[in-house]
Design brief:
about 180 residues; Pnp Oxidase, Chain A; two-stranded antiparallel ribbon; 1 helix
Length: about 180
């Protein structure tokens, strides 16, 4: 399951830990880095220029919900959104036989802008939206979970981030990890 929170956009998630904080579910999330490589060597040498990593925009696809109007409006107005977080979550049985929700992969974007927004619908279902975000900073964090004495313990595998304006690492992102 993939959940997103964008400051200023209402969400309708009913997932424990996410339902009171305006998170919404998405069907897919995409992000990538492209590095142009060129051969700069003379014949017979191994000199290769690896170029500069070019951060791509982030995009997601979702079913229309109560945040759709604001997403459309921000795509037209071009106004900045303070931050966005993307959580890939999994459920596990907790010690009290309930389902517990654990985020294992998280992305944070600050500030972000809606670069593109589109909606597509047909008569046989709810319309879907495709949204592309552009950002100044992006960070990624991963958690591994292990079960110890019937309870799950998490350990971060680290955080990595990049600030495109200063073209350097972004070392201080704060991720919100809901309790659910």
């Amino acid at each position: 399951m993939i959940l997103i929170h964008i400051d200023g956009i209402k969400g309708d998630s009913q997932i424990p830990g996410y339902k009171d904080k305006d998170w919404f579910a998405v069907d897919s999330f995409n992000f990538g880095v492209v590095r142009e490589t060129t051969d700069s060597a003379k014949a017979g040498t191994d000199d290769i220029t690896i170029g500069v990593g070019d951060l791509q925009e982030c995009s997601f696809e979702k079913t229309t919900d109560r945040g759709s109007i604001k997403l459309m409006h921000h795509s037209i107005s071009g106004g900045p959104l303070p931050s966005a977080e993307v959580h890939f979550v999994q459920t596990k049985d907790s010690s009290d036989s309930k389902q517990a929700v654990f985020p294992y992969l998280m992305f944070k974007l600050e500030p972000c802008f809606i670069k593109t927004w589109s909606i597509n619908g047909a008569e046989d279902g709810r319309p879907t939206e495709t949204v592309t975000l552009w950002y100044q900073k992006i960070a990624m964090q991963y958690y591994a979970y292990t079960k110890v004495n019937g309870k799950y313990a998490s350990k971060t595998e680290g955080t990595a981030g990049w600030d495109q304006v200063v073209n350097n690492s972004w070392d201080t992102p704060k991720f919100e990890v809901p309790k659910g």
